[in-house]
Write a structure and sequence with these properties.
By secondary structure, the protein is mainly beta. It is built from 4 helices and 38 strands.
Length: 588
């Protein structure tokens, strides 16, 4: 038998964890189909929004009970929650029995009470893709996706009897307010002049709201831009450049100018690009090597002329193994005109487990903080890292926000839920109570930016020899249990995700058709908390009567397999893998 050890697990001193307490936001669960949101009101107080299990839009602040913003028997979708200075707004797609879907807005008044609901639109046949942007002075923009038929002038929706259609007519619409939502301009189709529009992004820059989106015209996809005109309306959408397609898009302000960044396809591959306005011109940039990344989530933030991007991506080549998502970072020091080479952010020597869904924030002092989901300990953990020099360097070791490997936690895609409240960063995430992963609650985790204790080096695990010996003992116990037909013992050695989904009695009832005679461990290769074990064994299938007639049997036969074992809960467990469906219940 040959044993190859690459490294062992990560030991985390308790002092690494956040000192502040974790706040359980949703006492009775939430609806994960609606992405929860977290914002900070003037950097002083966190406010959370989520959909409960009845579909109601709930908002909650510390020291206050959850409050339903939706009317009884009405559900919310496409939740948007944003704050601009001390102004706090919530928007959603409202639906109820017998009524058409509507874009609805409420805001928090100075007396701490929420305003009455303001219905902004029904005529565009709105869909649950809503964006907000604004400023502390009361400028506010609401943009959404709609599917209304064209009006006779080809611009705004008709608002008359629906037209029979066989294809959708997706466009992006917007309304503007200059007084915090008290009064509004007309609904405008922002992608007028194009055949459709789909993915929006908003930002404030130079005292105006800036809108970016993908839109098609004459068989080509364009990255387009429009902005508020200062008189309650919008400028016509202009094409910045033609692109292949847009899959993800984000926008921010840098040096008083708007910047958009998007990921999509170009030709036969992927492409990551940016565009920033300098004076009257748009300067575009295509990231070298971006064709190698299949990006699934990204986040963008700016601090003066410095712009920071984090994203998670798997290799673009479908044949690349292991094809896992990892977190990457890059920055621009000249306001988006050029970017530094893309580099890994996670400090872990192995790529067998994934890390993804990064969120980035920059504090008033310029300190950068990135939080992401990390599966280095098999269960999904929350990890973070900090840079005090604008992303030039990072802490030598990533830090966990909770005791690693204990709870399954997850962040949410396409949103930034990092908020600063009373000088402390927090992040909103879901935590599952068990490995069944069927229902979770929302928690707000504090994120310390000045941890004082360094993490242990994962390459210097003092228990590595014991960990290796334990693996050999557990593999031996599993195969010896099969040889003895002791299926209860074999069941207990499977991973906890599998055991939450199949009862022991059911496993035992379906076992025993194959008899195991002998086995030998040929090789064990350990990489962090994942091991590949090659086993040679002899099995036999006694004569079976088939349901449709006939019999089947196999005499004692020698064969060899490679199976995966995972280190979780301080023990090695055999990872269940369904050979016919080619799936496992683990998520790493």
């Amino acid at each position: 038998m040959r044993i190859l050890i690459l490294a062992a697990g990560l030991l985390i001193p308790p002092l690494l964890l956040a000192d502040a307490s974790v706040w359980r936001v949703s006492e009775d669960g939430f609806d994960p189909k609606q992405t929860p949101r977290a914002v900070s009101v003037a950097g002083e107080e966190a406010c959370l929004a989520y959909s409960d299990r009845d579909g109601r839009l709930m908002v909650r602040r510390p020291e206050s009970p959850a409050l339903a913003l939706t009317a009884p028997k009405r559900a919310a979708a496409g939740i948007a929650l944003e704050s601009f200075g001390k102004r706090l707004y919530a928007a959603w797609l409202d639906a109820g029995p017998g009524d058409p879907p509507a874009i609805v807005l409420r805001w928090l008044n100075q007396d701490g009470q929420w305003s009455d609901a303001r219905r902004l639109d029904t005529a565009t046949q709105p869909l649950p893709r809503i964006r907000l942007s604004g400023d502390p002075d009361g400028q506010l923009a609401v943009v959404w996706l709609g599917d209304a038929p064209d009006a006779p002038d080809g611009n705004n929706p008709a608002g008359s009897e629906p037209v029979a259609r066989t294809t959708p007519n997706y466009h992006l619409y917007g309304r503007l307010s200059a007084d915090g939502g008290q009064t509004w301009g007309d609904v405008r189709r922002l992608t007028a002049g194009f055949e459709n529009g789909f993915w929006p992004a908003l930002t404030m820059a130079g005292g105006r709201v800036h809108f970016f989106a993908d839109a098609r015209r004459d068989g080509e996809t364009h990255l387009v831009h429009a902005q508020s005109d200062g008189a309650g309306g919008w400028t016509p959408a202009e094409s910045i450049k033609t692109v292949g397609s847009v899959l993800l898009i984000a926008a921010t302000e840098t040096g008083g100018e708007p910047l958009a960044l998007w990921f999509g396809t170009q030709g036969d591959g992927f492409s990551l690009e940016s565009a920033v306005r300098k004076g009257a011109q748009w300067k575009t940039y295509r990231f070298p090597g971006s064709e190698d990344y299949d990006i699934g989530s990204m986040d963008l933030v700016a601090h003066g002329d410095q712009v920071y991007l984090v994203f998670s991506a798997r290799p673009a080549l479908v044949t690349a193994l292991p094809r896992k998502n990892h977190v990457y970072f890059t920055r621009s020091l000249d306001g988006g005109l050029s970017w530094e080479p893309i580099r890994h952010l996670r400090h872990d020597p192995f790529d067998l487990t994934q890390d993804h869904l990064p969120q980035i924030a920059v504090g008033p002092d310029g300190v950068l903080i990135v939080v992401w989901n990390d599966y280095r300990n098999i269960r999904g953990d929350l990890y973070y890292n900090v840079s005090v020099d604008g992303g030039a360097s990072w802490l030598a070791q990533d830090r966990p926000l909770d005791m690693p490997g204990v709870n399954e936690e997850t962040l949410f895609p396409f949103v930034n839920n990092l908020v600063l409240a009373h000088g402390v960063w927090h992040v909103l995430a879901a935590r599952y109570p068990d490995d069944g992963l069927t229902a979770a609650d929302l928690y707000l985790y504090p994120v310390p930016t000045t941890p004082t204790v360094l993490a242990a080096d994962p390459l210097n695990d003092e228990d590595s020899l014991a960990k290796r010996a334990q693996l050999e003992a557990r593999v031996t116990a599993f195969w010896d249990a099969l040889r003895k037909a002791d299926y209860a013992t074999a069941y207990a050695l499977y991973d906890p995700y599998f055991r939450r989904r199949m009862r022991q009695d059911d496993y035992i009832a379906q076992s025993g058709r194959v008899r195991h005679h002998s086995f030998a461990i040929q090789e064990m290769q350990v990489t962090g908390n994942v091991a590949q074990v090659k086993v040679r064994f002899v099995y036999e299938i006694p004569k079976l009567t088939l349901p449709r007639g006939g019999t089947y049997d196999r005499p004692p036969t020698a064969t060899e397999i490679t199976e995966t074992w995972i280190f979780i809960d301080g023990q090695w467990h055999k990872e269940y893998h369904n050979e016919m469906g080619d799936f496992a219940f683990t998520r790493y």
